[in-house]
Design a protein that fits this description.
The protein has 281 residues and is of the alpha/beta class. The protein has an 8-stranded mixed sheet, with helices on both faces. One of its GO terms (molecular function) is ATP binding. This is Flagellar biosynthesis protein FlhG.
Length: 281
């Protein structure tokens, strides 16, 4: 597998630095997918080329939030039935969208020929400035695989006690299971009623992670609880489009602005992502 990863790096080497973000959570129902969609659109509104990948292989719903019906997904590329260009969905919101699929972990067992084909296809995403991966919730192997390969990991939580506990839980798993990788973890608190509430919750998780895991976790921001969010889900249009002046939309724009000011370090873009994705745990 390491030899295959090295070959991938050679095939896919490019000078473009694509920022690859994995958005994850310890439990479902915290608004992770909704935030992923709206963050992707916020980047596009800044003039970035954005690709959003649905990495929730069990309960994929990103397409529903945008009212997109994908005909093909990543498994069609892995099985050589389609090219990467053929499975990319253009959306009315200025971003590109790729649907995930059950069985995507099969990539770890591809033959050399299959790996060569997939690598060349995946390299096409290197034209993106930003790739956002909406992972599944929890600690399934495919979730950790996406998390381990990304440049940055954003853990989403809410003020609910169970969500806070599960957010710490996934940070603990990432820290202990991926000890050989330097993980850049940031915390995003969704559905808060005040800025103070978001800061208080983030401080609690960050302090515990520092004390018991010796892990530095950064606070990237919060998103207000607002009826406009649920209304946009029902309409199947992202809230940053439905009501761009709403509090949640302004929060998303602020978060993206903060992310853009932060350094992504020594990332090598798509080539680095695939190298780490294929690496044995």
């Amino acid at each position: 597998m390491e030899d295959q990863a090295q070959e991938l790096k050679k095939m896919m080497s490019n000078n473009k630095k694509t920022r690859i973000i994995a958005i994850t959570s310890g439990k479902g129902g915290v608004g992770k997918s909704n935030l992923s969609v709206n963050m992707a659109i916020a980047y596009a509104q800044q003039g970035k080329k954005v690709t959003l990948i649905d990495g929730d292989l069990g309960m994929a719903n990103v397409n529903v939030l945008m009212n997109v019906v994908p005909q093909y997904n990543l498994m069609h590329v892995i099985n050589k039935q389609k090219t990467m260009q053929e499975i990319i969905n253009e959306t009315e919101f200025g971003i590109k969208f790729i649907a995930g699929a059950n069985g995507f972990s099969k990539i770890a067992n591809l033959t050399v020929d299959e790996l060569d084909y997939f690598a060349k296809q995946f390299a096409m995403l290197g034209n993106s400035d930003i790739i956002i991966i909406d992972t599944g919730a929890g600690i399934a192997n495919n979730v950790l695989q996406f998390v381990a390969a990304a440049d940055e990991v954003y853990v989403v939580t809410t003020p609910e006690p169970t969500a806070i506990t599960d957010a710490y839980g996934i940070i603990k798993i990432i820290t202990t299971e991926l000890v050989d990788r330097e993980m850049n973890i940031k915390l995003l608190v969704n559905r808060v009623h005040s800025a103070d509430e978001g800061k208080r919750i983030s401080d609690r998780i960050i302090n515990i992670a520092g004390q018991f895991l010796n892990k530095k976790v950064d606070y990237i921001g919060f998103v207000y609880d607002d009826p406009v969010v649920q209304a946009s889900v029902i309409r199947q249009k992202p809230f940053i489009i439905v009501n761009p002046t709403s509090k949640p939309a302004q929060c998303i724009k602020h978060i993206v602005g903060r992310i853009e000011k932060s350094d992504i370090g020594s990332s090598e873009g798509v080539s680095s992502f695939l190298k780490k994705f294929l690496r044995k745990n």
